Amino acid sequence: MRLQPIDLQKIKIQDPFWTKHVKLVGEAIIPYQWDAMNDRIPDAEPSHCLENFAVAAGRKKGEFYGAVFQDTDIAKWLEAVGFSLAAEKNPELEKTADEVIDLIAEAQQEDGYLDTYFIIKEPDKRWKNLREGHELYTAGHMMEAATAYYQGTGKKKFLGVVEKLADLLCDTFGSEDGKIHGYPGHQEVEIGLIKLFQVTGKRKYLDLAKYFIDARGTGENYFLQEISRGDSGNIFPELSDYRPEYSQSDRPVREQEAAEGHAVRAVYMYSAMADLAYEYQDEELMAACKRLWNNIVQRQMYITGGIGASGILERFTVDYDLPNDCNYAESCASIGLAMFGIRMANITKDASYIDTVERALYNTVLAGIALDGKSFFYVNPLEVWPDNCMERTSKEHVKPTRQKWFGVACCPPNIARILASMGQYIYSVGETALYVHLFISNEVCIEMETGEVKVSLETKFPFENLVRIKVSHVPDGGMTLAVRIPEYAGMYQMTAKGQLLEYKEEKGYAYLALAQDADISISFEAPAKFVRANPKVRADCGKTAVVKGPLVYCLEEIDNGKNLAELYVDTEKEIQEVPSELFGGITELVLQGKRMEESAWDEKVLYGEHPVKLSDVTLKAIPYAYWNNRGMGEMAVWVKELISG
């Protein structure tokens, strides 16, 4: 049996590291994004998202504004609201959300169709441009939002709206005669259908998700057929030269060997593949999931858990192509990677998947949002020189400072929904076992087949590596506690009442059999250390990065001066870990190194024979997650290594 997520209504997170991020959801992120979607943020790109629904519902007159998938902004916002209301009741927020749901229901067409772009702008082109139209993508996010809102509030109106929509999809798509034999250009509806099945028990939703996955890439490519028919239009000019590998539709999913194409589409699809592999006990599909996962994490993932090397088409490129200053590494892509990873961990009970989930959460996902919850990165580079982040160049997608909002704003509400659902990444539950994936302080009541178990987890991780877990109400028949052993953890041990405990280690988890209530301490070593990339990663040859546990560190101009490219770090010198009050309390890292001296160079001379002169310098590094929270400046994760001999 696969492991199951916990009920978010039963967990309270109070953690020195994570609370400031999780609390932001209700206190700042949801209100700020509500203002953004109502076009009330000064000097920010307009959203018009709610206005589109008002026009589609007939409450107002007007034209559609925004991206073809603009509806998904409010869908992900509602999903975050659902998760947030599960954690903490908020009658005013719930009332606002209910009013939005009423508006969405009014906009829905009689037959269940729901997409404001096609309702308002191109009603005659419904389902005619699956390649670019994002109708199914939008439907998927609506389904995810409705299931989260139902689970958080118990209210069924939104669920009824998306069931009507899903029923329309079941009647419209499939292998049967008279149905459309297509599949989504941007995968997501598969996840939504699976969640809808899990909530309603209606198998037809699961079967349609399976159809979309099974049909993809088989026979004559459906998207190329759309183009040849000439009736689908061209919404995105950059896709005028359409190539099926961009949407992972160039071959059947079970035959795909490597992650390719648009990174977000890929990991959303892989997440659905994992769910379907389990539900249908499809070993071939599960083998494809493992193969694609391994390709990503072993050859195409940044040290920060970012994926997607190319700003052009937001895509994977080739193995080991991981440029630092022009990559994309979209926030949504790392969120999708975490979604894929938690599914694989719950199915396989293999903690190595959580190592990557943790890496993405602690680095790229957190870097995507400012500490005040009111500005965002869409793109997450590992090296920034603000002066060359220029429009109409190869780096125009790289922003040197977080933005108030985006015309295409999929990342901000996506970050909101993952922060609001963090509890589902901390624990998973088996029939008689509780799995601890992440070390985040919390109190939770766990529903197991043998009864409710209460758990308290206390820690100051990731800056200290001591975790205390208290388990009470252990059932009469006992239970199993499985605690992850991180890949970076040295000298891992468990104790109770000062005595070492023997545990069984399997697939990265330490298994303990509990016959009674227990108070267990877990400790391990995870000092800051230098790491290097495989030499095949050409961008990082001769360079080093600094990590501490799951945290990747970076250098910023504010601490280390301009032109970070002049710096060399001495990896033979000890890394100092220094407590700091920055960002609510962190561990800064102090490094020793050298700086190239510019004094020999005349600014009018571009090239010359001047010898390299180096001077001693002390460097400071902070967690990558917090870069650009003190103003705009240069940033670098990878630094040249001072090599002697």
UniProtKB/TrEMBL annotation:
Keyword check for tRNA processing, yes or no.
no
> What InterPro entries is this protein classified in?
6-hairpin_glycosidase_sf (IPR008928), 6hp_glycosidase-like_sf (IPR012341), Beta-AFase-like (IPR049174), Beta-AFase-like_GH127_C (IPR049049), Beta-AFase-like_GH127_cat (IPR012878), Beta-AFase-like_GH127_middle (IPR049046)
Q: Which UniProt keywords apply?
A: Hydrolase
Q: Name one Pfam family in it.
A: Beta-AFase-like_GH127_cat
GO molecular function (one): hydrolase activity
Q: Which residues form the Non-reducing end beta-L-arabinofuranosidase-like GH127 middle domain?
A: 434-513
- Where the record annotates domain Non-reducing end beta-L-arabinofuranosidase-like GH127 C-terminal, the positions are 529-640
Respond yes or no to whether keyword Hydrolase is given for this record: yes
Q: Which Gene3D superfamilies match?
A: 1.50.10.10
Q: Using the record's annotation, list all stretches that form the Non-reducing end beta-L-arabinofuranosidase-like GH127 catalytic domain.
A: 11-423
Which SUPFAM superfamilies does the record match to this protein?
Six-hairpin glycosidases
PANTHER family, per database record: DUF1680 DOMAIN PROTEIN (AFU_ORTHOLOGUE AFUA_1G08910)
- Name of this chain's protein: Glycoside hydrolase family 127 protein
